[in-house]
Every structure is written in structure tokens, then in C-alpha cells.
Design brief:
This protein has helices at residues 2-32, 120-124, 129-132, 238-241; strands at 40-49, 54-64, 68-75, 83-87, 90-95, 100-103, 133-141, 144-151, 161-167, 173-179, 185-197, 200-210, 217-226. Helices cover 18% and strands 44% of the residues. It has four helices and 13 strands. The chain has a single domain (22-241), classed as Lipoprotein localisation LolA/LolB/LppX (outer membrane lipoprotein receptor (LolB), chain A, Clam), CATH 2.50.20.10. By secondary structure, it is of the alpha+beta class. Residues 66-243 form the Uncharacterized protein TP-0789 domain.
Length: 245
């Protein structure tokens, strides 16, 4: 009887561990796909703030699954037409003033996008929390779930660690804290202003604060989003990238 009880207890503990692991993976997958679907299109604003100046860019954005992203700046006039395209593992930027398409090498994915605090990777979502990082710790505190992630050995990343804080009830992200390889906190991404767009609820505002640049921050606001939209495959082509609209 004792042996049977021990086996049953062991099975119960292991089952709970697997369920917990699956639950964490589900949260990470949902966050990876939070602003994406089989096809989405929307209008977003990006406000870049520094101690000396600030500017706001208005953009159109299209996505298809996790592999395709297209962004085109509409305002201000001096940046109108600047576009970014992600197609599977490749990323390009188009600059209409010089009429040139530049392919973004992997080494530049962590570089600034249009002078903002967001990187090329942040905007086109090249990396994935569930695929490129592994979970090392999970804990619950004050109705939230804290998940510690570190990059896999083959993952190219600036970050030695990411601390993700998720509201337990909604499983929506509240913030992500990014650490370098020396375990120093480098930046914080806050998720705010939860809204419903169609049948999906998302944080409509993301505010990124770099801790290494005092007085700097970049805010992205989702103004309109249509999920599960019918986005033509021609949207994600180099020909479309170079169109002057």
C-alpha cells in the first residue's frame, strides 16, 4: 500500500509539474501572438520622448501569423514612406528619400528603429519568448505571475535575462524587465490601457523606458486594429515595400 501511495503521489506531483509547464508555455505563446493573428491590420502611433525633443510618428501596420510584418510611416512628412518588412527570417527597411532598400543583418536587429528606444526586433517581432528563451523560474505574487526567461545558447540576444510579469486573471502582460549579461536592469516595457478590438482584448499602449538614458522613453499606441483580417500575400513583398503611397 505504501509503495502504491508513493507511486500515486509521485505521479500526481509530476502531473502537476507538467501542467504548470504547459500553463507557462501557453502564457508565453499568447504574449508572442498578442498583437497578431492569421492576418491583422491597424493604425499605430509612436511617440519618442527625450529631454531635448519629442516627435510622433503615425504608421500603418499589417501582420500575418508570426512570420510576416509590414510597417509604413504616414506622418510626419519627412519620414513618410519609410517602411519595414519582415518575411520569415529576413528583414528589410526602405528609405524613399534615397530610394534604397536595406536588408537588416542579424547583428543589427537589436539596433534602434527610427531613433526610438524600440529595436528592429521589437517592431517586427523576429524573436519569440517561447522559442528563443527558456523558463528558469515562475512564481506568483499579489495576483500576478512572474516568469524569468533566459536565452537559449543559439539565440542572438542583447538580454541575459527577461523578467515577465503577467496578471494572473487575464494572463495579459503588465511589464517586461530586461537585464544584460551582468544581471543589470537595462530597460522596462510597461503594458497599459487595456482595450477591446473586435473579439480580442489587448493592452493598447506600450511604454518603453531605457534605464541607461535618463529622461528617454518611447510610447506605442494602438489606435485601430482588425484581427483575423484578410491581408493579401502581396502586402509582404519587396515590390510593395518600395511603393510610394
Amino acid at each position: 500500500m505504501k509503495a502504491i501511495s508513493f507511486i500515486f503521489l509521485t505521479f500526481f506531483v509530476l502531473s502537476n509539474y507538467v501542467m504548470a509547464d504547459e500553463s507557462v508555455n501557453k502564457i508565453l505563446k499568447n504574449i508572442d501572438e498578442l498583437y497578431r493573428s492569421k492576418g491583422s491590420q491597424g493604425k499605430i502611433e509612436m511617440e519618442v520622448i527625450t529631454p531635448d525633443w519629442s516627435r510622433t510618428m503615425k504608421m500603418d501596420m499589417w501582420t500575418k501569423g508570426m512570420d510576416y510584418t509590414f510597417i509604413r510611416i504616414k506622418e510626419p512628412r519627412k519620414d513618410k514612406g519609410v517602411s519595414s518588412l519582415k518575411r520569415e527570417d529576413d528583414v528589410w527597411n526602405f528609405f524613399p528619400k534615397i530610394n534604397k532598400v536595406i536588408k537588416v543583418p542579424p547583428s543589427m536587429m537589436m539596433g534602434s528603429w527610427m531613433g526610438s528606444d524600440f529595436t528592429n526586433d521589437d517592431l517586427v517581432k523576429e524573436s519569440s519568448l517561447i522559442k528563443d528563451y527558456k523558463t528558469t523560474n515562475v512564481k506568483e505574487s499579489d495576483g500576478n505571475i512572474e516568469i524569468t526567461l533566459v536565452p537559449h545558447k543559439n539565440t542572438v540576444s542583447l538580454w541575459g535575462k527577461i523578467l515577465l510579469v503577467v496578471e494572473k486573471k487575464s494572463e495579459l502582460p503588465l511589464k517586461q524587465e530586461y537585464f544584460d549579461e551582468r544581471n543589470e536592469k537595462i530597460r522596462i516595457l510597461f503594458y497599459r490601457d487595456v482595450k477591446k478590438f473586435g473579439n480580442r482584448t489587448i493592452p493598447a499602449t506600450m511604454e518603453l523606458q531605457p534605464l541607461t538614458k535618463k529622461g528617454h522613453k518611447t510610447i506605442i499606441r494602438y489606435k485601430e486594429v482588425e484581427f483575423d483580417a484578410n491581408v493579401p500575400a502581396t502586402t509582404f513583398t519587396l515590390t510593395n515595400l518600395q511603393k510610394r503611397r
